[in-house]
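Q: How would the structure tokens look for this protein?
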Amino acid sequence: MTPEDDSSDWPDDPATTTLHLKGSPDVLDIRAEADRPQEILEEMCAFAESRTRDERALYVFRLVCDEFLVNIASYAYEEGNGPVYAAVDGRDGLRVIIRDRGIAFNPLEDAKVPDVEAPLRERDIGGCGIMLSKEFAKKLEYLRIGEWNVTIATII
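A: Here is the predicted structure in token form.
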């Protein structure tokens, strides 16, 4: 699943490289194409399950990662596909960084807020996954560094 190692593809910023510790058994580092969100998600979740048995944390981890990976696959790249990099840190809790070079999108500010009071048949599609991610993650951050979207989620 890992494209060729090209360090020029990685943002050179401490906020996005703190999890990139080559060779650390407590950090999973994935480089893949955005059109493979389920494969990336399954690898990330297997790693998370090896670090904690906290069922709520694993549920939130899957929800947050699935939301962001599927959104990247669906909307980030106008040409249809591009790189996505993910790192999962199991050293002290459970934290994930997901990076893409897609169009700028700050999920904390740009995502539409769903009208959860409206009848289901009248609701617009979108916004619920990000809303739930904001609610359930311990901390959710977004950075735009050059041409990179960087989402950082702390689960536990």
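Residues 1-16 have pLDDT under 50 and may be disordered.

The CA atoms of residues 2 and 32 lie 5 Å apart.

Upvote if useful.
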